[in-house]
Amino acid sequence: MTDIQSLLQRLGLDRVLPAASTGLIAYPGQGALHQDHSPVDGALIAEFHYADAALYERSLAACQEAFLAWRQWPAPKRGEVVRQIGEALRAAKQDLGTLVSYEMGKSLQEGLGEVQEMIDICDFAVGLSRQLYGLTMHSERPEHRMYEQWHPLGVVGIISAFNFPVAVWSWNAMIAAVCGNACLWKPSEKTPATAMAIQHILKEVLQRNALPEGLFAVIQGSREVGEWMAQDERLPLISATGSTRMGKAVGQAVGARLGKSILELGGNNAIIVTPHANLDMLLRGAVFGAVGTAGQRCTSTRRLIVHESLYEEVKAKMVKAYAQLRIGNPLDEANHVGPLIDQDAVTAYTQALQNLQKEGGRILCGNRVLEGPEYSSRCYVEPSICEAENHFQIVQSETFAPILYLLKYKSLDEAIALQNGVKQGLSSAIFTSDMREAERFLSAQGSDCGIANVNIGTSGAEIGGAFGGEKETGGGRESGSDSWKAYMRRQTNTLNFGSSLPLAQGISFDF
Ligand code: NAD
Question: How far is it, in rounded angstroms, from Cα 94 to Cα 97?
């Protein structure tokens, strides 16, 4: 038995359902059969039947029923269940983080970090369960009181992307749960096993608390299942994470039925490097930002906008740093860069570099698909640094691969215009020790992104802040701060404790 097989056993995946004929995990759908291969070594992890319409209906009905009971639980009691989920995740951290790494391809450290993020959001949600505050207002009418309350929405639909196979679900589900909602989750078809592992971990917590499984249901499927969800009026809120193409489709479908949506879509993130930057710090931030998760984070650094006075120096340092990167199995902690998710992603990488050259750009390093026994999945590529212009079509679009474009600027205004001069608006950063430059970048005339950092790279957000971006990134906010409000409906209450009925605005209506 391989290590991975015992890992799946420890996560209880072999017990979720009887083993399928060829794979290790089965799923009760009747839809198309889907094979889940690891990008690490190409091995088959599991075989799944996608959900068919009947299973979708059964799952949604289970969620609706769970919601009717759950909404009656006091919010702090809901928080107690989420606390237990956090404990269960703590216990499973090593195994779950390893599976995230093996199924998605990110480094083991990042896989463990992803599970830690889930634990952190559980802790956050537990505290939040006692802080779902509404305001009170003074009424203009005598002996009247006005206040607002926040009530749960119902069943929240969560559609997630492959690159954060579990953390993004938890940002949504743990907050939605303390708010009193049930959740129906469609994970990425590229990372179904981690979703099943989560379902198994939750099952035990739900059973212990005599709660129905429909509180956190998982439904496996391709985009078709996501489309059903987007169109379904029984899902008052759809939180969708993925490409801008997906977000436009989901946004239109949910908008057409006047539902609510949280859209967390693609980024095109830049770091501005001013003459006052600490280059040692920059190097760490920029290299991790560009090659971490093999460039497959929505917040990955895609553009480095460097002042002309230090452009050549930064370029040389970056190319030298890339030469030291070790590419290989992400479970081996000696490696810095793991595989891309699949062959399609490798094709997108090679095509992007071809297009860059056609547009007049120059490749400084990378542009190689690695071969050999260690790279048997054929998903490993060399991270690339390129000289480019911001207006190139390829620079304007998000390629989900480790490709970094170097751009040159003369004035800070020009740098900010370049940084903002793309359709996406997720994450941005400036490296400077000059307070005026930093404040200008953070001001209303500065970065137009949802995330703007100083002396920190573009990736690696903490759960305490609201996460999301503007423009084609979709405008949604998840995780910390007051993002919880999107998972609830606001009700304004006016209560008359007098014995007359005065009308607002002094209107008289006597008869
Ligand atoms: P994707 O858009 O291909 O798929 C994401 C999810 O949407 C999957 O579950 C997929 O099945 C589903 N889907 C696809 N088309 C759909 C449709 N028309 N209707 C309903 N559902 C549909 O994205 P991906 O390749 O899995 O992930 C990479 C993308 O996700 C990148 O663009 C990345 O920037 C983005 N992303 C954004 C954030 C963020 O918070 N802004 C976080 C992670 C990833």
Answer: 5
Query: How buried is residue 227: exposed, middle or buried, by Cβ count under 10 Å (0-12/13-18/19+)?
Result: middle
Helix runs in 324-433, H state only: 343-358, 393-396, 412-420
CATH homologous superfamily of 269-466: Aldehyde Dehydrogenase; Chain A, domain 2 (3.40.309.10)
pLDDT of residue 25: 44
Pocket test for ligand 1, best of 184, 218, 246 (most atoms within 8 A of CB): 246
Atom of ligand 1 nearest to the CA of 188: 9
Assess whether 298 carries a catalytic annotation: yes
Q: Give me 105's structure tokens.
A: 């391809």
Q: Which of 114, 264, 398, 437 is catalytic?
A: 264
Q: Would you state the pLDDT for residue 15?
A: 46
What does the pLDDT look like over 232-260, one tens digit per residue? 999 999 999 999 999 999 999 999 999 99
- The answer, yes or no, to whether any atom of ligand 1 lies below 6 A from the CB of 230, is yes
Taking 70 as the pLDDT cut, the residues of the chain under it are 1-2, 14-30
The domain limits of the chain are 16-265+474-491, 269-466
Single pTM value for the model: 0.96
| Nearest residue (CA) to ligand 1, atom 35 | 242
pLDDT at 1: 38
Q: Are 473 and 265 in contact (CB under 8 A)?
A: yes
Instruction: Check if 169 has its Cβ closer than 6 Å to any atom of ligand 1.
Output: no
Residue of minimum CA distance from atom 14 in ligand 1: 223
Ligand 1 atom closest to 187 (CA)? 9
Q: What does DSSP say about strands 260-264 and 237-241: parallel, antiparallel, or unpaired?
A: parallel
Atom of ligand 1 nearest to the CA of 159: 9
Q: Say how many Å lie between the CA of residue 162 and the centre of ligand 1.
A: 7
Active site residue 371: no
Q: Report the pLDDT value the prediction gives residue 227, as an integer from 0 to 100.
A: 98
Q: What is the pLDDT of residue 14?
A: 64
Which pLDDT belongs to residue 47?
Answer: 79
User: Tokens in use for 196?
Assistant: 């099943």
Which secondary structure element, helix H or strand E, spans residue 100, and what is its range? helix 75-104
Q: Does domain 16-265+474-491 have CATH number 3.30.420.40?
A: no
Ligand 1 mean position, distance from CA 136 (Å) = 39
Provide the 10 A C-beta neighbour count for residue 49.
18
Of 430, 428, 429, 457, whose CA–CA distance to 287 is shortest?
457
